[in-house]
Amino acid sequence: MPLRPLASAELAGRRVMIRSDLNVPLENGRVANGQRIQAALPAIRHCLDQGAAVILLSHLGRPRPGSFDPRYSLAPVAAELSRALRMPVPLSRNWLNGLDVSPGEVALCENVRFNPGEKEDSAELGRRMAALCDIYVMDAFASAHRAHASVHAVALAARAACAGPLLLSELAALEAAFANPARPLVAIVGGAKVSGKLGLLASLAAKADVLIPGGGIANTLLGAAGTPIGISLAEPDLHAQALDLLRARAELMLPIDAVLAPSPDQAEAARIAAIGQVGGQEMILDIGPGTAERYAAAIACSGTVIWNGPLGLFEIEAFAGGTRKIAEAVAASAAYRLAGGGDTLRALDDFGLAPALDHLCTGGGAMLAWLEGGQLPAIAALESRAEGES
User: Fold this and answer.
1) In sequence order, which residues have a C-beta less than 8 Å from that of residue 253 and are 6 or more positions away?
2) Which of 193, 116, 165, 135 is nearest to 368 (CA)?
3) Integer CA distances (angstroms), 287 to 142, 216, 259, 271, 299, in order
4) What residues contact residue 175 under an 8 Å CB cut-off, 6+ apart?
5) What global pTM score does this model have?
6) Using alpha carbons only, what angle is made at residue 50 by residues 44 and 52, rounded to the nearest 5 degrees?
7) Catalytic residue among 14, 15, 19, 36
8) Is position 19 annotated as part of the catalytic site?
9) Which residues pair with 5 in a beta bridge?
10) Residue 36 is among the residues annotated as catalytic for this protein
11) Which candidate in 45, 127, 193, 346 is catalytic?
C-alpha cells in the first residue's frame, strides 16, 4: 500500500506535527554533528512554505522516563535549528499540556522519551500527542522500526497522517537496492556479532549474489568451518547457524588472509598472515591485503552494493586498511551503492568517501529491520491510515 506523501497534503493554516530524527551527538552542550538536523530540514521548510504551524517531535539518547534530565534535553538542537532556519525555534518542556504556535512558526517539543509510556507505545499518550495537531508527519526513518508512541500510536490517533520526504527517500533507496536490484548484488556485512544480524544475513544470503562478511561475523563463520581463529572475537555458540549460512545460495567470500595482533592495544605487534596460520594467542583484527583485493574485485563487477558494518577495527589505523580498501572500492564502483549503520557511515566520513555513494541510510537499525523483511511499526501505521483513507 503506497504511503500518503506530505507533498499531497493541504497545509495552509494547519498545525502539522513532524516526527523527526534529531537524535544528534552532543559535546559540551552543543551539537557535534548536525547531519540529522540537515536531513530534517526539507520537511520543515515545506510545511513553513505552505503556511503551516510546525510542531517538531524527536527523542535524544536514552533518558529515564518520567523525569527531566538536562543531559538529554533538546535545547542544543533548538539552538541549532534556529540557526539553520534563521528563525526562533522555542523549546517547549510541558508541551503535552498545549502549545502556542502560529502559522509560519516552529516549536520544538522536549525529548519525547521523558514521557512515561513513550517506549511502551501508549495509546493514551499517542492520543494526547495527536490532539495537538491537524496532520501528523512521520519523517524519522531511524525510528521507524520502533513501536513507540511518537512514531506509532500517534500515527493511528491523528486526524490525518502522512510520510515525510526523508522517510520516503530512505524507503525508495532500499527498494532500489534490494527489492529489484541491478545484478550482481554484493552485500557486505561486518560488525562484531553474528547474533545481532542473523536475520539480515539469512535474508541477504537468499537474495544476494555475493555475500562478503567481516569482523566478528567473519570470525564466527571461519570458526564454524573449522579454521583456527585464536582468541579472535567470535560467537562459537552460533556455529550451527553459521554452517547454514556457509551452505547458502549466495557466493560467500570468506577471508583468505588477515591482520593479526595479540590485542587491539598491541598494534606494534601486528602482522599479516594467511587464514589458517592464526596463533593460539592472536586476534584477527582486520582483513588482509589479499582478501581486500579479492573483495574489491567482486565489488568492481557488481550492479548493486549494500554495505552495513566495517571489516575490521578501523578506529585504530593499524587495523583500518581493509575497511579503507573496501570503502574505496565501493566509492569507485559504477554500481548502485547504499550504506548504513553508524560505524559504516563513520568510516566513510573518516576516509572522505561518503559523498561518493548513492545513498547513506540515516537509520542503521531500521535499515537492518527492513532488509530482514520485518514489519516496521511506523510504516505499518502509515499504511493502515492510507488504506483507510483511500
Assistant:
1) 210, 211, 212, 213, 294, 295, 298
2) 193
3) 30, 11, 6, 11, 16
4) none
5) 0.88
6) 65
7) 36
8) no
9) 163
10) yes
11) 193
Taking the C-alpha atoms of residue 33 and residue 211, their distance in angstroms, rounded to an integer, is 32
Encoded amino acid at 275, one letter: I
Cell reading at 251: 557466493
Does residue 389 surpass a pLDDT of 70?
Answer: no
Q: Is 22 exposed, middle or buried (0-12, 13-18, 19+ CB in 10 A)?
A: buried
Q: Of 51, 342, 352, 373, which residue is the catalytic one?
A: 342
pLDDT tens per residue across span 131-175: 999 999 999 999 999 999 999 999 999 999 999 999 999 999 999
- Of 61, 303, 365, 374, which residue is the catalytic one? 365
53-63 pLDDT tens trace: 999 999 999 99
DSSP 222: H
At 166-179, the pLDDT tens digits run 999 999 999 999 98
Closest CA to 318 of 266, 257, 254: 266
